[in-house]
Design brief:
The chain is of the alpha/beta class and 340 residues long. The chain folds into 3 domains: 136 residues, Rossmann fold (3-Layer(aba) Sandwich), CATH 3.40.50; 59 residues, Helicase, Ruva Protein, domain 3 (Orthogonal Bundle); 121 residues, Up-down Bundle (Zinc Finger, Delta Prime, domain 3), CATH 1.20.272.10.
Length: 340
């Protein structure tokens, strides 16, 4: 059975399933879901908890043997398996075997990274869903972050003036854990207050941690100001790692953009050609809009700049790669950048 993250609490009040799958890429929301399951398990007499981080060398045979030994003593236990990556075939088979052997004395909780559509439809995963609940933890995007923060503030007995809320969004966007920590500080310092921007500024650091994929879509949407803020945050966070990651995404998306421009120039319907383009259909409107503005020649010029960026990153060509990266993103966002 599949459950959306917000519905987990109500589902736990009704019953405790023998198995839970948690998948998502928001650490705070994953931890809160785990805490909810742990609390529900303790309320039903599951006093023991065992947690493992699963890597390639994890010994599932030892885990099964331990589970069998504990079953002889009728211990009620919560068994947590945290995967840092998607399970390989051996792990998939082991999880299904473990699920089949579950008794009433053990609740199995499996934590997975965010799954794409193909991974979510895999047979091994569907088999586990039939034995328990798959809780999908959705990310909080830029469109939802303001209402999400307001809800969190209300739950903490706080309110925020409009400019204070806008500042909070800017400081914590892309980092829900930082938002949670900041709200916890604000509760201690200003209990029951209607927060001002000055109060938030007095305790907050810029905790924004942006998603590389979201940066590309922000540029394609034409939001130049937010794109610059995200880019500067990524550079400050991890200059070399994020530069390499951004180059890979930029190269992929500019190549797709050139494909879209050629398809539109031929008069072909783009909606039926998303596989040829190389992006998901949900992102195609963004590419269509930019391709229509730049045209084939303009898209090809951006591809040439990406090739130049590659040379700068490798140290073969002169120039500051972050500045060229910014110029390309601003071109996608339709923001003019003064040339030196």
């Amino acid at each position: 059975m599949k459950i959306a993250g917000p519905a987990l609490t109500a589902a736990l009040e009704r019953e405790l399933a023998p198995l839970y799958l948690l998948s998502g890429d928001e650490p705070l929301l994953i931890e809160e879901a785990l805490d909810a399951i742990r609390q529900a398990a303790r309320a039903r007499g599951f006093s023991e908890r065992e947690s493992h981080v699963v890597d390639k060398s994890f010994d599932f045979d030892a885990l099964f043997a331990n589970t069998g030994t504990l079953s002889l003593f009728a211990s009620q236990r919560l068994l947590e398996l945290r995967f840092t990556g998607n399970p390989n075939r051996e792990a998939q088979a082991a999880l299904n075997e473990q699920a089949e052997r579950l008794g009433s004395d053990t609740v199995l909780v499996i934590t997975l990274p965010k799954l794409d559509r193909k991974e979510a439809e895999a047979k091994w995963l569907q088999a586990l869903e039939q034995r328990g609940s798959h809780v999908t933890i959705a990310s909080v995007g830029s469109a939802e972050i303001s209402s999400w923060l307001q809800q969190r503030l209300r739950a903490a007995g706080l309110q925020a003036e409009p400019d204070a809320l806008a500042l909070l969004v800017q400081l914590c966007e892309g980092n829900l854990l930082a938002a949670h920590q900041l709200i916890s500080q604000l509760v201690l310092l200003f209990p029951g207050a209607k927060l001002t921007a000055e109060q938030i500024s007095s305790v907050a650091a810029d905790n924004a941690r942006y998603n590389l994929f979201e940066l590309m879509d922000t540029a394609l949407r034409g939001d130049g100001n937010r794109c610059l803020r995200m880019l500067h945050g990524l550079r400050h966070e991890d200059e070399q790692g994020n530069l390499r990651g951004l180059f890979g995404l930029l190269h992929r998306d500019i190549r797709a953009l050139v494909n879209v421009a050629h398809i539109k120039a031929r008069g072909q319907r783009i909606g039926d050609a998303w596989k040829e383009v190389g992006v998901f259909s949900s992102r195609l409107p963004l590419f269509e809009r930019v391709a229509a503005r730049l045209g084939v020649q303009g898209c090809q010029q951006q591809m040439q700049r990406v090739a130049q960026l590659d040379q700068q990153i490798k140290g073969v060509a002169k120039g500051e790669p972050w500045l060229l990266l910014e110029a390309v993103l601003m071109s996608l966002a339709a923001v003019s950048v003064p040339t030196a």
